Structures are given as C-alpha cells and as structure tokens.
C-alpha cells in the first residue's frame, strides 16, 4: 500500500510528493480501464478520485505562484505556528468524520464514449499538474512556508507548510479510501 513518511522540511515535502506520485502512478495503473471507471457502490470510481485530486491540486499551483505580498493581503498572516503533518492529518480526518465533503472540488458526472481516451486525458492532466506543482514548490524558500496563509475550503486558513502537508496526505487518503472500498466490495 501507499507509504509516506511524515514530512517536515521543504526537502522532505518534495521527497514525499515524489514518492507519493511514483507509488500512486503504479497504483492507478493497476486498474483495467473498466475497473478504473466503475463506481465503488455509491462512491466515486477510481477515475473520479483521480479527477477530484486533479481538480483540488490545480489551484495550489496558482496560489503558490502569486506574489507573496498579495497572498499576505488576501489571506493575512498566520496567527500560530504550523501544525505538524500528523496533527494536520488528524484535523482533516476529524473534519471528514464530522461530514466534510468535496463540494466544488467533486468531479462532475461525465458520460464518455471512449474510456481509453478519457483515461489517458485524466492521467496526462494528473502528470502535468504534478510536474507544475513540484516545480512551483521547489522555488519556495523554506522560511516562507510558515509566513503565509492559504485558504482551504474545509480547514480554513492554513500556512503554506500545512497546505503542502494537506496536499500530500489528501492524495494518499484517496488511494486508501479507494482500496478500502474495493476490499469491502470483495467480501
């Protein structure tokens, strides 16, 4: 299964993203196309999960590319130090347990006639987003990660470090959810 060490520094965050990307690429590629698009009972299909991740990862590239002054003006400065990766993960899971939903980041229902082409499109978009995100993250100075806030639709304002932690865990979380649902269906 997908294993990620709890990152702390910027280099560890980048390493976690790279590890997660490599492991998750292998994971999503294990699915035959028909399985990739098959709903897991009343839950999203693996493809829907990837589409959701694409949709939620994309805005982070733009946010991290904004001038720092604009980020400060729009979202204020942090009022406390960044949570650890594990604490942020706990916070996210508790919000989900309380009913938190994907909202506008949920994938829209689509009816495609050529699933192979659609799968290729989804996975190409995933790869492009990952490459842009990693390139953007690598440009960040370590000391800036705790100086600026970014908005999260469920968790409120997060420091840049916390947002990166969230993004790492969020990508892992969706694989864990798909795997859990898949196993439940096999029983």
Can you offer a commentary on this structure?
The protein is mainly α and 187 residues long. Helix 1 packs parallel to helix 7 (160-186), helix 3 packs antiparallel against helix 7 (160-186) and helix 5 packs across helix 7. It has a two-stranded antiparallel ribbon with strand order 1-2. It has helices at 10-29, 33-36, 46-65, 68-75, 85-97, 115-138, 160-186; strands at residues 149-152, 156-159. It contains seven helices and two strands. Strand 1 (149-152) and strand 2 (156-159) form a beta hairpin.
Output the keywords.
187 residues; mainly alpha; 7 helices; 2 strands
Structural class: mainly alpha
Radius of gyration over alpha carbons? 17 Å
Low-confidence stretches: none
Q: What's the end-to-end separation, in Å?
A: 19 Å
Percent range of helical residues? 55-70%
Number of helices: 7
* β-sheet strand percentage: under 5%
Q: How many strand units?
A: 2
- Major sheet strand order: 1-2
Q: Name the helix and strand elements from N-terminus to C-terminus, one letter apiece.
A: HHHHHHEEH
Q: What coarse outline follows from CA principal-axis ratios?
A: globular
What is the residue-averaged pLDDT? 94
Please outline the major beta sheet. 2 strands, antiparallel
